[in-house]
Amino acid sequence: MSILGTLLPGRSNQRGQAAEDIALAYLQQRGLKLVERNFRCKGGEIDLILSQPGPSPQLVFVEVRQRSSSRYGGAAASVTHSKQAKLIIAAQVFLQRYPQPPACRFDVLAIEGEHIEWIKNAFDT
């Protein structure tokens, strides 16, 4: 069974949770480490916050989007400017816990059917 085999039809929140589970496993297999999941604040929510170790470590804010097909623009296209603004606000709130905020970026992990697309630096602040 593929990593996407767990995406079954069901209620929206169950599908969203399954998509986040898949996204987390996918990113951890690529060396990222979970910092926090489903960070919520008054301004918005961030699905996954991970750290990417290496010579230039970064904090990675990840929006997970799942669609059954690319019809109607697909998963990545569903991250609108409005959604980006909410993610930025939530990230600013999250970063307040750091005396010296680390380097960070915004990624989108788009799942369409059996295909995963990891878009690094999906948008700028």
How does this structure look, described?
- A hairpin with a 5-residue loop joins β2 and β3.
- Strands 1-2-3-4-5 form a five-stranded mixed beta sheet.
- It is globular.
- Residues 1-9 have low confidence and may be disordered.
- With 125 residues, it is an alpha+beta fold.
- The N and C termini lie far apart (38 Å).
- The protein contains three helices and five strands; from the N terminus they run αβββααββ.
- 30% of the residues lie in helices and 37% in strands.
Helix and strand topology:
Elements: H1 12-29, E1 33-41, E2 44-52, E3 58-67, H2 74-77, H3 81-95, E4 104-112, E5 115-123
Parallel strand pairs: 3-4
Antiparallel strand pairs: 1-2, 2-3, 4-5
How would you summarize what this structure contains?
The protein has helices at 12-29, 74-77, 81-95; strands at 33-41, 44-52, 58-67, 104-112, 115-123.
